[in-house]
Amino acid sequence: MSKKAVCILSGGMDSTLASYIAKNEGYDIIAVHFNYGQRTEKRELQAFRDICEDLEIKEKYEIDIPFFTQIGASALTDDKIDVPVDGVKPGVPITYVPFRNGIFLSIASAIAEKEEASAMFIGVVEEDSSGYPDCTDTFIDKMTQAINEGTKKNTHLEIKTPLVHMMKSDIVQKALELNVPLQHTWSCYKEQEEACGVCDSCRLRLNGFEQVNATDPIKYKGQ
After folding, report:
1. Is 135 annotated as belonging to a binding site?
2. pLDDT digits (tens, 9 = 90+) for 38-71
3. Reported confidence tier of residue 153, pLDDT bands at 50, 70, 90
4. pLDDT given for residue 87 in this prediction
5. Distance (Å, rounded) from C-alpha 167 to C-alpha 151?
6. How many degrees, rounded to 5, is the angle at CA 53 between CA 22 and CA 68?
């Protein structure tokens, strides 16, 4: 019997690499994507669909979570808050979406239980988190305990975070080694046509490519 994994797949470089790692580990992938009112929602959904096609994924879920825009409090979900473009600063960034990964993992757990999956993959990265409290080993360990406590006795879920201790340059290198279609991924927090190149996410991505002397295949403003 084949083993199944639910992959939380945003369409970004990290979650895409995590999904390719899952495939290489022999899992049948069930892909889950969340539309949560983020600024680049349409572009991320396109990336998700393209990557599912690349991976030949048959089982996929596109989940709408509208309440994040009601809460606001994040530059990703509240149009009144500008996405910062002046580099990473100490503390929790304004791009942090309250308990987003906790909510994503909870929903993905329900899908995993229904699909009888044994693992969930999430592309959290401590370097990338820049102070996000829901991207740490400690958080993932405690979520794993809570999820297994709150599901059926025959449900045994492992949350796999293959990138959590990688630097962005390591992620780029690994993605290139595995022939991940990086041209289909999207990381920009601000723009949907051409990546801005100046938000925290774009800066980290571009820096990762620069450190391994590789060229990012997506288009940036001003190129």
Report:
1. no
2. 999 999 999 999 999 999 999 999 999 999 999 9
3. very high
4. 80
5. 34
6. 75
- Distance CA(48)–CA(60), nearest Å, equals 10
Task: Name the residue with tokens 């229904």.
Answer: 114
Q: Which amino acid is at 168?
A: K
Q: Which domains does the chain have, with CATH numbers?
A: 4-211 (3.40.50.620)
14 is in an annotated binding site: yes
Is 76 marked as binding a ligand? no
Among 96, 108, 105, CA closest to 142? 105
> Is 17 among the annotated ligand-binding positions?
yes
Identity at 49, one-letter amino acid code? R
52 assigned to a ligand binding site: no
CA angle 19, 221, 179 (to 5 degrees): 25
12: annotated binding-site residue?
Answer: yes
Residue 53 Cα distances to 28, 119, 141, angstroms: 14, 21, 31
* Tokens 């942090």, residue located: 96
What tens digit of pLDDT does each residue of 91-131 get?
A: 899 999 999 999 999 999 999 999 999 999 999 998 755 67
Query: Order of strands, edge to edge, in the sheet holding 28-35?
Result: 59-64, 28-35, 4-8, 119-121, 158-160
Give yes or no for a contact between 219 and 69, defined as CB atoms under 8 angstroms apart: no
What six digits make up the tokens of 118?
């044994």
- Nearest residue to 34 via CA among 136, 111, 134: 111
Q: How far is the C-alpha of 132 from the C-alpha of 129, rounded, in Å?
A: 5
Distance (Å, whole) CA 70 – CA 55: 34
- 7 marked ligand binding residue: no
pTM above 0.90, yes or no: yes
